[in-house]
Amino acid sequence: MSVLVLTTGGTIDKVYFDASSEYEVGEPTVPHVFREAGVALDWRLESLMRKDSLEINDEDRAAIRAACEAAPESRILITHGTDTMSITAEKLTGISGKTIVLTGALAPARFKTTDAIFNLGLALGAVQSLPPGVHLAMNGTIFEAGKVCKNREAGRFEATGP
């Protein structure tokens, strides 16, 4: 089994330069995290963009969808900023024969205290074990696309609807 990892930017890859929160989206952190965790699974990285999720638009979402559809891999993990991750997930529904799991972080992976490593591990396990469809892996929970939202006040994702 091989997994395609698509990166789009977001907080998970942010680099902060000073106390006034000046930042930019840096190189993908997935290779470092996977190396440190001893991930032995075959995987391939494709960096699609380096954007804060608030900057991701419908054209970008179409590019993400096209990359998923064109990929030879049937298992795809996408790192994405958390503010609009659920919107992108909904735009990916209906891709046949692919298990797609989106994840991100509320604190950059480069920070000492971060949810990034936990979320990446959850997403990697989820993409290997879930049936085809689109899911989000955040805060120790797997959510189905179209049935999740970010609760900014609580700093977590929550299921919506039935």
Molecular structure report:
This protein is an alpha/beta fold. It has a single domain, classed as Rossmann fold. A hairpin with a 2-residue loop joins strand 7 and strand 8.
In short:
The protein is of the alpha/beta class. The chain is 27% helix and 32% strand.
Looking at this protein, list some descriptive labels.
single chain; 162 residues; alpha/beta; Rossmann fold; six-stranded mixed β-sheet; two-stranded antiparallel ribbon; 10 strands; globular; Asparaginase/glutaminase-like; L-asparaginase_N_sf; hydrolase; Asparaginase
Layout of helices and strands:
Blueprint (H helix, E strand, L loop, with lengths): L1 E8 L4 E3 L6 E3 L4 H8 L4 E10 L6 H13 L4 E5 L5 H8 L6 E5 L12 H14 L3 E6 L2 E4 L3 E4 L4 E4 L3
Parallel strand pairs: 1-4, 1-5, 5-6, 6-7
Antiparallel strand pairs: 2-3, 7-8, 9-10
InterPro entries: Asp/glu_Ase-like_sf, Asparaginase/glutaminase-like, L-asparaginase_N, L-asparaginase_N_sf
Keywords: Hydrolase
Organism: Luteolibacter ambystomatis
